Amino acid sequence: MKPFSLPLAVCLFLGIGTSSLTAAEVPTIPPALGAYVSQPDAAFRWERKGQTQTPAGTIHELRMTSQVWHDEKWEHALQVFIPTNTKIHSTILLYNTGGNPGVTSTFLGMFIAQKAKMPVAFLYNVPKQPLFGGKKEDALIAETFVRFLESEDATWPLLFPMVKSVVRGMDTIQQFVAEEFKADVRNFVITGASKRGWTSWLTAATGDKRVIAIAPMVIDTLNIPTQLKNQVRAFGKPSEMIRDYTMRNLIPLPPGKVSQALWQMVDPWSYRTQLRLPKMIINGANDPYWPLDALNSYWDDLPGEKYVLYVPNAGHNLEERRANGFKDRERALGTLAAFTHHQVTGTPMPKLRWKHEGANNQAVLTLTSDVPMKVVRLWKASADTRDFRKSVWTEQTVKTTGLKAELSMSSPASGFAAFFGEAEYEQNGLTFHLSTQLRILEAGQ
User: Fold this and answer.
1) How many C-beta atoms surround the C-beta of residue 16 within 10 A?
2) 322 and 233 in one domain?
3) Model-wide pTM > 0.85
């Protein structure tokens, strides 16, 4: 495939609601992403590799080539999970991930499919790796960013072929379902974690009408320049988890128009005005990558339907450490499944709204819901500084009328305290959780 380049001049505390931006605030949407993804690629193809029948359902195994990118052929495994006694819907959840299928990922795929009561697809090998001397994950992304800065060739950022992989995954699923089941898949909910969550955001940013909702997980980094300042404020320096970027002098952000163009091209915040589709943001409250209150730097800028879930006592893998010592991902996966199920059935998600207020060292958080909340919880944690990555979160059940609850939190005697509200719902046989934005309190304020 012949690469293309674009001129740099071209590349340049409330609850659910719709943001309104003035003309001066509406961002210029970088065109390079859409141009790359829409470019035809003769390498695209897929084939059936077999199927596995289990008591839980059928797993269809496919193999796909999404593209050739800088002389590298991107090949992917693709699994389609269809639970027993489940029909093919017009909507499918597409989970993009790295690596190859294994016991854990196969169990996870069928688990989500059973929970959501619908077919689910897992797309693997996003991105193709290792490349360029054995580089993987963030080291590989950083390498491609440096190559863009050196060449100004807009095909280099690795997120672009990652997005194209997901788009080709949608093409493959549609063709496979039409051939195998004589059914019509028209819509997709796109999800993934970390850089695959980043990919989920950017897949929606292409404007592909098949993407009707997204559920990006543990990628709490929209509005990148502000988030990097947040990291230094919270941790005293950029997180050690992003050292692959600091080692390549990509962070702090280098000056100049080329660097500015790069970060605009890959930052979902640049595309925010067109991201009006439903969004389920899932974060770990102890994620070592991001400052605890990172969401507050971009939440109000996101238009349209949006939800957030904080998983307490969970890091980047969203595995919650329970008080009894057990670990599981039930909170994250249950909410992902419920969100997807609502998109398939067309039934609205609960409208959870909240308001942070307070004076005289007493913070107040009011929650309201249009449908009854089964349980309301106050989650709180403390830390000596704004770094809450190793803090333990404790819960307190709060009295609720079902449609309203009020939580309160005192400023700490020393250091910092953080809190957020959580509403537990039960609908259509599914238990799930929605959170509020969180708030950090400082002693003496």
Assistant:
1) 17
2) yes
3) yes
